[in-house]
Write a sequence for this structure.
């Protein structure tokens, strides 16, 4: 299990994409280097979802799409008690899903 | 391409069913075949649309199974899994078979039996269409994507909860006139929004969306009989032609879209469908949209070209999309109230439109409907199929 979340930076045009694709969505080049995704940004939108998938034994999950300061957008779990559109957050890495014995690590957002 | 006609349409009651997957599919197929009244004309091919059977019903190769049920051997058989757009995708496959001259008669049947598993399993199997590493692992479900989308659209265009409730009220009213609908109970603004007990009647599902903003989980099947021009001429009767189909895809992860409030794939699919039909949105008399969530009916009504961007909720408020309005949307009750057996939905939308164009809808009949449009919204907008049907005199 990786300890970071990775996107890809195109070796030709330099575009960073997250999640990864096999081909650069900008220039169709096929070689990349991995880049760690994270940092500070703002909440683009969020929801408290009560219609949950399997493997969650909580009442609801607070999910958000965050636009990072480098322009990359990410989906993850928002840990703040009072979410607002546009609020400043930073990414941390935490357990986002428990699948059997496996604790899946992913992006969570906390206010700054 | 050769012209393609829809000679028959049928469906099962939507809701919770004790029938097996193949019983559902067979009943809808036989209803469509009887409607088409093919006589001695053989069925050349069968296409079955479904999303979850491999997981929730432990059955695969549904096309072959349906041929067997209906004793249509040696007809060709295919199964189409394309998420919530499976239905219209299967329809497209059938249309292509006839348009290319490879077949003269194709049966297209969409079926889903998803009430057999509990709510978590049901929600999870649909959520498995989301991006596995960038969305699904975080607990993203379809209601979650719809909730995040709704918050953005409401903030940007001034859509209010009352507008979402208006979609629900309208579609429940229409479904009450549809004997095939899952939910045939009308709802009121007081009951789901303004009275204190509305908070209990209408709990949060994915903030800002509440229970009455979401479609039910349904079992059901729907079926169409597609025929070539020669067969249509031989059969006689009302002629409903497939005027145009458009399809477009978009990024898997919703967050990667330049403007997450823009349903680009709907815009592109609708544009292609209308171009191929040689028609415009203004020519349309009756519409079925993919209102798995109330916000989607409003957004798709704009992206399909019926109203300018940000104006859909205003047209709704003016009553334009009611059964007696200038552009009735979801006379069937939509996914919201007719129900949403996922793989059947895209076919069921077209079943309603065929019946509308043939004047067979009784209490929910849209008067003099000649041109119809359907939008089958797959993924959360990463795969959309739009169809235009036309009644020939």
């Amino acid at each position: 299990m990786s300890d970071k979340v990775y996107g890809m930076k195109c070796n030709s045009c330099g575009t960073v994409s997250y999640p990864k694709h096999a081909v650069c969505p900008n220039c169709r080049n096929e070689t990349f280097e991995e880049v760690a995704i994270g940092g500070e940004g703002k909440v683009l939108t969020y929801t408290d979802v009560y219609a949950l998938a399997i493997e969650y034994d909580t009442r609801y999950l607070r999910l958000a799409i965050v636009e990072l300061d480098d322009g990359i957008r990410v989906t993850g779990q928002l840990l703040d008690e009072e979410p607002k559109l546009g609020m400043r957050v930073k990414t941390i890495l935490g357990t986002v899903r428990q699948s059997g014995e496996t604790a899946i690590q992913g992006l969570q957002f906390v206010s700054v | 391409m050769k012209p393609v006609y829809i000679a028959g349409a049928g469906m099962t009651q939507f809701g919770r069913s004790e029938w097996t997957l193949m019983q559902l599919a067979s009943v809808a197929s036989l209803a469509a075949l009887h409607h088409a009244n093919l006589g001695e004309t053989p069925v050349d091919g069968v296409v079955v649309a479904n999303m979850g059977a491999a997981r929730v019903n432990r059955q695969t190769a549904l096309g072959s199974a349906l041929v067997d049920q209906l004793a249509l051997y040696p007809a060709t058989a295919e199964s189409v899994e394309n998420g919530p757009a499976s239905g219209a995708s299967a329809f497209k496959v059938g249309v292509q078979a006839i348009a290319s001259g490879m077949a003269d008669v194709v049966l297209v049947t969409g079926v889903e039996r998803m009430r057999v598993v509990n709510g978590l399993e049901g929600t999870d199997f649909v959520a498995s269409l989301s991006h596995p590493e960038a969305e699904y692992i975080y607990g993203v479900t379809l209601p979650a994507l719809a909730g995040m989308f709704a918050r953005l659209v409401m903030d940007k265009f001034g859509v209010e909860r009352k507008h979402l409730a208006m979609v629900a009220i309208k579609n429940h009213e229409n479904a009450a006139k549809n004997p095939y609908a899952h939910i045939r109970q009308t709802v009121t603004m007081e009951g789901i929004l303004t009275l204190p007990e509305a908070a209990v009647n209408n709990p949060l599902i994915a903030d800002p969306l509440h229970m009455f903003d979401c479609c039910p989980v349904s079992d059901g099947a729907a079926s169409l009989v597609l025929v070539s021009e020669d067969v249509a001429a031989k059969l006689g009767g009302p002629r409903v032609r497939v005027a145009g189909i458009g399809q477009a895809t978009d990024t898997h992860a919703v967050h990667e879209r330049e403007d997450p409030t823009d349903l680009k794939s709907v815009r592109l699919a609708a544009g292609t469908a209308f171009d191929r039909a040689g028609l415009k949105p203004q020519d349309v008399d009756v519409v079925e949209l993919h209102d798995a969530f109330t916000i989607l009916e409003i957004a798709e009504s704009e992206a399909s070209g019926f109203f300018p961007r940000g104006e859909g909720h205003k047209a709704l408020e003016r009553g334009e999309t009611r059964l007696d309005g200038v552009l009735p949307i979801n006379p069937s009750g939509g996914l919201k109230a007719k129900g949403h057996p996922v793989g059947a939905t895209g076919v069921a939308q077209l079943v309603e439109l065929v019946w509308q164009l043939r004047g067979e809808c009784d209490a929910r009949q849209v008067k003099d409907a000649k041109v119809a449009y359907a939008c089958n919204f797959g993924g959360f907008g990463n795969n959309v199929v739009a169809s235009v049907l036309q009644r020939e005199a």
Q: What stands out?
A: The interface with chain B takes residues 17-20, 25, 44-56, 60-61, 63-65, 73-77, 85, 96-97, 104, 106-107 of chain A (CB under 8 Å). Residues 6-36 of chain A form one domain. The beta strands of chain A are 6-10, 16-17, 32-36, 40-49, 61-68, 73-78, 88-99, 102-111. Chain A has no helices and eight strands.
